[in-house]
Amino acid sequence: MPPRCFIIGHPVAHSRSPLIHGTWLADHGLEGSYERVDVAPADLPGFVERLRAGAFAGGNVTVPHKEAMLPLLDEVSEAARAVGAVNTIWREGARLHGDNTDVSGFLAHLDASVPGWDKRVATALVLGAGGAARGVAFALKARGVGRIILVNRSRIRADDLAAALGRPVEAADWQERAGLVASADLIVNTTALGMHGQPPLDLDLAGLRPGTIVDDIVYVPLKTPLLLAAEARGGIAVDGLGMLLHQAVPGFARWFGVTPSVTPALRARLEADILGH
Does residue 64 have a cis peptide bond before it, meaning omega lies within 30 degrees of 0? Predict the structure, then answer.
């Protein structure tokens, strides 16, 4: 039987993962499928039992199941345990494995967009303290960034996350964010602010130094107001679409046995799909 794979979420109709994996299946001439499955939170344990029984080879997990899935698996990666969430799962016999490829996807996209970035980033400013911020801060710590400052509208969440991840992750007040811009070599927005349909991110970039990398994990729109403002001040803009593409690579390799490439053609397909909606 060709591998049958999925993305589960609630809702899940907006997910572009089927477009990514479907393109790779066609490019490599592979048999198999990748489908959206809407799973309500109460139905998650039942879905996992179907997965154990062999209904699927594996798949991706999106909101609101990334945290809830973790205790239902048999083995999880260091990244998934540190972040407290999984987004990629696969079956080995009767055992279910999980990973958080948002971590590696974030780093791979930065590597591709700004080669050698980690040699020039001494201080990173991370906006937000949710699951995405946890993954980004963990990734930056793993790469050896010397100072990682979290700012969040709720200071206690930033404090909790900094305590959980340990040095060099630290927290600062949301009101300090504009002042911290000048000392940052890398700024990452992990909040939904600036996403289509959401309020804009309120961040004064007056202190931004030319050459500072500004990464927004939002990808609808492709160029958020934050990225446009950063470019206008000589910053290096990194959009969120590449992270979405790169995080998909490890799962596809697990399920279908071929490691795909993130190509300009694939990115162009995703961009066209985003602009068409």
Answer: yes
Q: Please state the rounded mean pLDDT for residues 241-260.
A: 97
Annotated active-site residue 119? The verdict is: no
- What is the pTM for the complete model shown? 0.93
pLDDT tens, residue by residue, 104-159? 999 999 999 999 999 999 999 999 998 899 999 999 999 999 999 999 999 999 99
Catalytic residue, from 66, 119, 141, 223: name it. 66
Instruction: Specify the pairing of strand 147-152 against strand 123-127.
Output: parallel
b/e per residue, 251-262, with b = 16+ CB within 10 A?
A: bbebbbeeebeb
pLDDT tens across 155-193, in order? 999 999 999 999 999 999 999 999 999 999 999 999 999
**Tokens 């060099």 appear where?**
168
| Predicted pLDDT at 277 | 65
Question: Please, is 105 exposed, middle or buried when counting C-beta atoms within 10 Å of its C-beta (0-12, 13-18, 19+)?
Answer: buried
Q: Which residues pair with 150 in a beta bridge?
A: 126, 171
* Residue 6 amino acid letter: F
